[in-house]
Structures are given as C-alpha cells and as structure tokens.
Amino acid sequence: MRRRTVLSAAGAALAMLALGGTASAQEAMKIGLILPMTGPFASTGRQIEAAVKLYMQQNGDTVAGKKIQLIVKDDTGVADVTKRLAQELIVNEKVGVIAGFGLTPLALAPAPLATQAKVPAVVMAAATATITEASPYIVRTSFTLPQATVPMANWASENGIKKVVTLVSDYGPGIDAEKAFSGAFSAKGGQVENMRVPLANPDFSPFLQKVADAKPDALFVFVPSGVGAQFMKQFVERGLDKSGIKLIGPGDVTDDDILNGMGDVALGAITTQHYSAAHDSPENKAFVEAFKKANNGMRPNFMAVGGYDGMHLIYEGLKKSNGAGGEALVNAMKGLSWTSPRGPVTIDPQTRDIIQNIYVRKVERVNGELYNVEFATIPNVKDPVKAAKSN
C-alpha cells in the first residue's frame, strides 16, 4: 500500500507538471543529462558529457532569455536507475529537458515519464530504431543501427562478399543490426549465419571459434561503444586477423575513443557510420581540435557528436519556440536542419529521428595514428525501419 501511495503521489506530481508546464514558468531551463558515467559503458557517458559541456562553453549558457542549467546524473548503465533519476529530475528539479541515454534500455525506461510530464527527451546515444516510437516527446540526435547497417550490407554485396557470419550483442541495437544486415544482404543473394553474444560480461572466444570453422568471406560485428577493444583482443587470440576473413560492421567496433589502443589488428576493417574524427570538413576539424583541447587530448567519437548535436538541437529549438518547453519545444525541434561536424543533418518531422549521411570507412594509419578514413558517402539516410513502415 505504501509503495502504491508513493507511486500515486509521483504520478500526481507528473500530472501537475504537465498541466502547469515545466520550463515556461521559470527563468531557468534545466537540462537533466542522464548517462552511464561508471560501469562498462562509462566511455559513452564521458564522451557525451564532454561534448555537451564544450557546446555550452562555445555557445554560452543563455538562450531565448533562459539561463541553461546542466544537471549530470550517473545511471551506472542500469535502466531502473535511469527511470528513478528521470523522475527525480522532472518532479524535484523541474527540468525542462531530459537527455543523454547511453543504451537502448536506458532510453526506453523514462519514456512514459516524458510523455506524462510533457518533457522533451533528447536521445544522444541509444540506437534501436523503435525508441522514438516509445514517446512523442523523444527526439534523437544519434543514429539508428539499421541506418548504419543497411549501407554495410549493400557495400558487402557489391564488393564480392558472398558469405557472412554476423556476431552481435544480444539486446535491442544488436538485434536491429542483425536483422537489418541479414535482410538487406540476403535480398541481394548473400548467405548469412547469425550469432548473438550476451551483453553483460561477453566472452567472444567460443563464438569466434565457430566463425573460424565456418570460414565466411566476412565477419559482421556489432558491439556497444567501448567494447570493441575486448572483441579485437579475442579476435587476435583466435588468429582470425590472419585468416583472410574480412572484418565489417557498423562503426561501434572501431570506435574512435579506443581505436588507437587496438593496434594494427584494426587496420583494414571496413565500417559504415555517421561520424569519424577523420571526417574532412572545416566544421569537424574545428570540433576535433576544440574537443581535444578541452579534454586532455581525448579524441571525440560518434557518441560525442551525438551529445554536441543534441545540445545544438535544444538551443535552436528554444530559440524557435521563444524559450517555451514541453510540446512547443518538441514541435520546434521537428524539421530543424544544420551543418554538424558529421555533415548535413535534419530532424525528420515525421519520426523525430535524425536524417544524415552514412560513410563507408576503412581503418588506416594517418600521421602515426589509426583513423576511420571515409571513402564513400551515402547521403541523407533516413531510418530504414520507419521508412519501410511509411511506404
């Protein structure tokens, strides 16, 4: 009974916020940034927090008459903690926006709260296609796994690869990646075998032995950002780096944050992704230089650009809504376009996902460091899952 009373009180508080508005009645616009700052996915939190703070440093902390206040919370990568923190931020801190969300379960957990309190939720990292369908208040500045994966399947089929084994982390984005790659590659006549690895404490060795025995032309890999180094270590230990099996996948496996630490084994890996620190544009060169300067030489990765663009979206949305929060802010975000460090981007007004270029990249050594060097561009890619639904 006591638990039910507490939950009822929390629900009533959220309902009162929805009726009274959140940020519109305040001089301050508080942004609750919920990230995995400790635990196995801490690199995601570290990158996004650094990018968000860099954007604020460069663009000031006042927008449309509102003083921007950033409140950073560590959810340790646990969805129940994310939900509790989101509720505390909405009810107690009266934040106007919640943001961050390093993994899919963490993005989905507070979705009902965002809907009930009419608080925009800006997803800067999580990549399962369905996330934006969980609440009309969710807007995404990261990417979806199918968005990065279908171009990889197309590239593989066009470059003589006939047989592929997929090896993915067994949770939303991994399953998205597996389905998107397998569907697109099979449609072009390719042969696919699928394997899934536990998300928590993964041991890739037994799966890599099966890959070695299957002798595919290529191994397609998806692991969350930050886990690629562990995968690469076991890839070498099993001798797959010398087997002639091509390593392909979305860009998480050759994440810029850990790429240099992988060593020569990563050379030649082909990936498709929306951002590389080596992206050749004036905007990206300025972003990388400023990010490194502000963070003791740390190289930004695709999580960082999701955080940086997430703050840009919030700032520009506030300008367009004249500082209003809630539904007015979400509506102001829809259809916004700008030139990001990753290239041209637009928030799809129908899905609230990001439309962006996807690049085909190869790991190469440049000036003594490893980079994902882009060699082809697929422009203006929408999330294929929602695009298929609308057809």
Question: What does this entry look like structurally?
Answer:
By secondary structure, the protein is α/β, with parallel strands linked by helices. The protein is built from 14 helices and 15 strands. Strands 7, 8, 9, 10, 11, 12, 13, 14 and 15 form a nine-stranded mixed sheet that branches. The longest helix is centred in the N-terminal third of the chain and has 19 residues, at about 1-20. The radius of gyration is 21 Å and the shape is globular. It starts with a helix and ends with a helix.
SSE arrangement:
Elements: H1 2-20, E1 28-35, H2 42-59, E2 62-63, E3 66-74, H3 79-91, E4 97-100, H4 104-108, H5 111-117, E5 121-123, E6 138-140, H6 145-158, E7 163-169, H7 172-187, E8 191-197, H8 205-214, E9 218-222, H9 228-237, E10 246-250, H10 259-262, E11 270-273, H11 282-294, H12 302-320, H13 326-333, E12 337-340, E13 343-347, E14 354-366, E15 369-381, H14 384-390
Parallel strand pairs: 1-3, 1-4, 4-5, 5-6, 7-8, 7-9, 9-10, 10-11
Antiparallel strand pairs: 2-3, 11-14, 12-13, 13-14, 14-15
Helix pairs in contact: 2-12, 6-7, 12-13
Supply database-style keywords.
391 residues, 42% helix, 6-stranded mixed beta sheet, 9-stranded mixed beta sheet, alpha/beta
Low-confidence stretches: 1-9, 15-26
Radius of gyration: 21 Å
Query: Total helix count?
Result: 14
User: Order of SSEs, N→C?
Assistant: HEHEEHEHHEEHEHEHEHEHEHHHEEEEH
Percent range of helical residues:
40-55%
Return the average pLDDT rounded to an integer: 92
N-end to C-end Cα span: 48 Å
Characterize the biggest β-sheet: 9 strands, mixed
Strand content: 15-25%
Number-wise, the strands total 15
